[in-house]
Design a protein that fits this description.
single chain, 5-stranded mixed sheet, elongated
Length: 166
């Protein structure tokens, strides 16, 4: 089921309760599913943010497409995924993780992304971490040290719309 179908299903499954003003009841019914739903929505928002940066000439790597990647990690013998990956050419790519959580994104998320990007053989890589709430001090320090990491909070995404009158 796609994102829009899921959102519509939230409403359609609860139309009678919504019409009668039972908002709290409806919220209780859908609350457990909201984080998963919003995680996918947030990924789509992050992709649009990256496209906006590309169109404004502000991307360190000028990718030609963006998408989710999943596959096997032969080193660990497990299935794995990367929220967003974009390739410019056979030597340059971006990798991104999107976290819709109520806590700051920690260094382990960046380390996992770097590890997963090692499944590919690009010589020029840039990483993006997207967070609903922000980043831990350790994550920010590592990103600054690496110089090929961009940390983006939800507020940053909202503010780009204000900057560019979107």
């Amino acid at each position: 089921m796609g994102l829009w179908e899921k959102a519509l299903r939230f409403v359609l499954d609860n139309t009678s309760a919504i019409a009668r003003g039972a908002v709290n009841l409806v919220y209780k019914r859908i609350e457990a599913q909201l984080s998963d739903y919003m995680g996918r929505v947030f990924e789509e928002i992050c992709k649009q943010y990256l496209w906006k940066l590309l169109l404004e000439g502000r991307m360190p790597i000028e990718f030609v497409s963006l998408g989710r990647w999943w596959g096997n990690d032969p080193r660990k013998k497990v299935q794995t995924e990367i929220d967003i990956m974009g390739e410019q050419d056979s030597s340059s790519a971006i990798f991104a993780e999107c976290k819709w959580r109520n806590e700051n994104v920690d260094l382990d998320v960046l380390e996992t992304l770097i590890d997963r990007s090692g499944l590919f053989h690009y010589t020029k890589v840039h990483y993006f971490l997207f967070s609903k709430t922000g980043f831990t001090k350790g994550c920010m320090e590592k990103a600054q040290e690496m110089r090929n990491v961009t940390l983006v909070s939800y507020d940053d995404i909202v503010n780009i719309g204000r900057i560019f009158n979107v």
